[in-house]
């Protein structure tokens, strides 16, 4: 009986581990799913459009994120202003939406990236990595 309980406990820990790796803490390592806290209260400072499916977002503390969209978002490249729809939470994450004048675009992935303005070798030693 103790063996069954130990196995069940081990499975429960394994089931929870991937979710805890995607907590989206702003200090999360580069490349992991992240979230931008308080996006509806000044948590997003700036953005840069890469192409119709990719957007770079600057959060508080000069933290940068790459948002990849499920499909091309027409009008994104020419937008001077965007909306960041967080639904019911105040955090922007992979479940959020980008709103342009013409379209609402679903986010597929939001990951933390180094500052795109830093040289590549300086970005690897960035103290803001967490």
From TrEMBL:
Q: Which UniProt keywords apply?
A: Signal
Per the record, the domain of life is Bacteria
InterPro entries attached to this UniProt entry: DUF6491 (IPR045500)
Give the signal peptide, or none: 1-21
For this entry, the protein name equals Beta/gamma crystallin 'Greek key' domain-containing protein
